[in-house]
Design goal:
Order of helices and strands: HHHHHEHEEEHEHEHHEHEEEHEEE
Helix content: 25-40%
Distance between the termini: 108 Å
Protein name: 39S ribosomal protein L1, mitochondrial
Keywords: Ribonucleoprotein, Ribosomal protein
Organism: Scylla olivacea
Number of domains: 2
CATH architecture of the largest domain: 2-Layer Sandwich
Strand content: 15-25%
Family: Belongs to the universal ribosomal protein uL1 family.
Number of helices: 12
CATH class of the largest domain: Alpha Beta
CATH superfamily of the largest domain: Ribosomal protein L1/L10, rRNA-binding domain
Radius of gyration: 36 Å
InterPro entries: Ribosomal_uL1-like, Ribosomal_uL1/biogenesis, Ribosomal_uL1_3-a/b-sand
Largest sheet: 6 strands, mixed
Amino acid sequence: MAALSTLCSTGVVRSQLLRWAATSFHTSAALEAARKGTRAKAEAKKKASKKETVKREFIPLKKRLELKQTGGAFPQRVEDHLKNPSDNVWFARFYKQQVYTVEQAVAMHRETHHPTQLDLPDSLLHTEIDLDMSTDKTNRFIDDFYNVIRLPHDFNTEQERTILVVARSEDVQEKAIQMGATHAAGHEIIKQAQTGEINLRDYDHFIAETDILPDFVAVRGLIRKRFPSVRNGTAGIDVLALLERFTKGIEYHTAKDKYHHDYATIRVPFGRLNMPSEQLEENLSALLKDVDKQKPNKKSNDLITRAIILCPPVKRYFKINHGLYLQSEKPIKVAAAV
């Protein structure tokens, strides 16, 4: 004990004891707080632990209730996060849909509709087109539209539509009836409509000569958006040429989703199974281009998002690459708003 006290009296031993005491009896928190960067690390950790606040878009009460009924699920399948199948057998829900050519899709439909199977070799081929109805402005959507288009190759569409032709010449009126018009009349149709003798609501389309349009304005309130105009191809000098598009063409119109106004579909026939595949592809190409013409100027993203080919009564469908048939130049719109 005496020896230890003698050693402690020396400066060397005293400094060693003090160093040992400092490293043995301090608390680590006191030293950590004094280290450079400790406070910065703590603040960074605190920020990382906080949840990011995402600004929620205002949704009206009525739409919130509607979305609640459907579970808020978007009707179109989103495949951006899915991979392409790497094998010849796969679970369809976990991979992207396979893309076929029009010729391949038609060939597979012909197999199921063969006389040895369903025995429907001349069935109508339909295409269902998915549309993105949003615009560059928030909560602004494209209005529903429709059009009647004459495809390159005619076929029996089984579509029924009522057409009223207004022309001055009785000879033109007779030819219009022979071509398939439901009714044809002259200037007298205006008074008949005003007195209620003829109900204009019974007709789907109106075709008129341009020189009659000023007088036909008197009944514009009865037909509204269906009023003939040169822009949508329902008014002109030769009404018989315009009528041919309506008697031999196909009519398509958009069907918006009830709860998701930025999504709509078009389902329309474009040919029959017994037609050559080249003609079917030309018809489909003309149809897709005509639909794409309705894209407004204030829309930067694509209007058409998907196109499939189906053939009732079989529910199976085949996806095609619709981008191959769309033109890049800005076309002239001819469809009418619903």
